[in-house]
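Q: I'm building a small set of examples for a reading group on sequence design. Run inverse folding on the following structure and report the sequence directly after it, with nothing in between.
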C-alpha cells in the first residue's frame, strides 16, 4: 500500500493498514504511538498537539488506535505485524514522493511511545522480543497453572512463527523496492527505543473489588496475560535496556505501576515531570492546550508545557545508547541468520 499525501511536508495523517501515518520529508526517525483507553481510540484527535510536536521535532509519526481486548497477546502480536506492514508502506510512500527511504530500513531508527494502559502493549512487545527459548523459561517461572501457561506460550510461539513467515515475504518486497538485501531475523522490537508515559498495567477485571469474583471472571473470560503475570514477565525479562519512563508529579493513577516497573527493571531511565495523568492529551488552540479534562487544569498555556521537549530528548538519548548503529543492526541480523543456515 502506498500512502498518498498532496503535501508530505505538512502535518497530515493518512490511513495506513490499521494505523494513521504522518510522513516527515526529512525524518530523523519513526515514532509509533499507542494511547490510553478511550483517548487512544482516536489518537489523531485526542493526542494531536503531542503528536504534532513530535512531527515538528523531525519524526515520522505512526498513530496506532488503542484496542479494547481481553487477549492481550493477540493484540501484541497484531501490533508486531502492523509494525512491519507499516514499515513497508512508509518506504513505498517515501519512494513515491522522491524521498530517500534508507532511514526506514533500519530498526534502530524506530521508537515506541505509549501512554497509560497503552504502555502495557509496548511492554508486551519488549517481552516478545526475547529469543524463543528465553521466553519458554519466563513462562516456566509464572504461577502454578500449567495448562494456562502452556496455552499462552503455544499461542505466542505459533503467532511469532506465522509473523516470521510474513516478515520473510516483506523482506523480499523491500529488496524489490530498494535493491537492498534485508534480514530482520525474528520479529521483534529489540533494537528500538521505547518510552512509557504514565504507564498503567491494568485492565477492567482488576476493577472488580472482590478477589474471588475477580478470579472467577478472569477464568470465564480469559484475560491473558493477567496484570500480575505481566509484571512477573517484565521482572524476568532481559529486555527494557532501551526503555524510558515519564511519571507526572500529580498522577495517582500511574503511581503504583511506575514504582513497580522501577523495582522490576531498575535500569529504566525515569523522568518526573509536573502535571497529571492526562498530560499528553490535548489539542492546541492559539497559544493554549485544551486537554479535555474539566477536573484538571483544562487549559494550559504553551509556555508552561515541556512534555514534548522532555519526551523527544529522552527518546533521543535512548536511541543513541543502542549498542548497534542503524547499519550494524541490519548487518548483524543478516550475519546471524547466515551462520545459523550454514550450521
Amino acid at each position: 500500500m502506498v500512502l498518498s499525501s498532496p503535501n508530505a511536508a505538512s502535518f497530515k495523517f493518512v490511513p495506513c493498514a490499521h494505523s494513521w501515518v504522518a510522513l516527515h520529508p526529512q525524518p530523523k526517525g519513526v515514532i509509533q504511538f499507542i494511547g490510553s483507553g478511550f483517548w487512544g481510540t482516536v489518537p489523531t484527535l485526542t493526542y494531536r498537539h503531542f503528536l504534532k510536536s513530535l512531527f515538528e521535532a523531525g519524526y515520522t509519526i505512526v498513530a496506532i488506535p488503542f484496542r479494547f481486548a481481553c487477549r492481550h497477546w493477540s493484540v501484541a502480536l497484531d501490533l508486531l505485524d502492523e509494525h512491519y506492514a507499516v514499515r513497508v508502506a512508509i518506504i513505498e510512500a517515501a519512494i513515491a514522493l522522491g524521498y530517500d527511504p534508507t532511514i526506514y530500513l533500519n530498526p534502530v531508527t524506530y521508537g515506541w511511545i505509549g501512554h497509560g494502559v497503552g504502555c502495557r502493549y509496548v511492554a508486551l512487545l519488549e517481552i516478545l522480543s526475547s529469543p524463543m527459548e528465553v521466553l519458554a523459561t519466563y513462562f516456566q517461572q509464572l504461577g502454578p497453572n500449567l495448562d494456562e501457561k502452556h496455552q499462552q506460550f503455544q499461542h505466542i510461539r505459533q503467532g511469532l512463527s506465522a509473523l516470521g513467515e510474513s516478515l520473510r515475504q516483506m523482506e523480499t518486497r523491500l529488496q524489490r523496492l530498494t535493491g537492498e538485501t534485508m534480514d530482520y531475523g525474528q520479529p521483534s522490537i529489540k533494537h528500538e527505543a521505547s518510552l512509557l508515559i504514565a504507564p498503567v498495567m491494568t485492565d477492567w477485571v482488576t476493577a472488580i473489588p472482590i478477589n474471588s469474583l475477580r478470579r472467577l471472571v478472569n477464568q470465564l473470560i480469559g484475560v491473558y496475560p493477567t496484570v500480575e503475570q505481566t509484571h512477573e514477565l517484565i521482572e524476568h525479562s532481559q529486555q527494557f535496556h532501551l526503555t524510558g519512563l515519564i511519571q507526572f508529579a500529580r498522577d495517582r493513577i500511574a503511581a503504583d505501576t511506575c514504582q513497580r516497573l522501577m523495582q522490576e527493571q531498575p535500569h529504566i531511565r525515569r523522568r518526573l515531570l509536573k502535571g497529571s495523568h492526562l498530560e499528553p492529551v490535548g489539542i492546541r488552540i492559539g497559544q493554549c492546550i485544551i486537554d479535555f479534562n474539566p477536573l484538571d487544569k483544562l487549559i494550559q498555556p504553551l509556555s508552561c508545557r515541556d512534555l514534548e521537549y522532555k519526551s523527544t530528548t529522552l527518546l533521543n538519548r535512548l536511541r543513541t545508547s543502542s549498542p548497534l548503529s542503524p547499519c550494524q543492526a541490519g548487518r548483524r541480523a543478516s550475519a546471524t541468520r547466515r551462520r545459523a543456515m550454514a550450521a
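Residues 286 and 302 are 9 Å apart (CA to CA).
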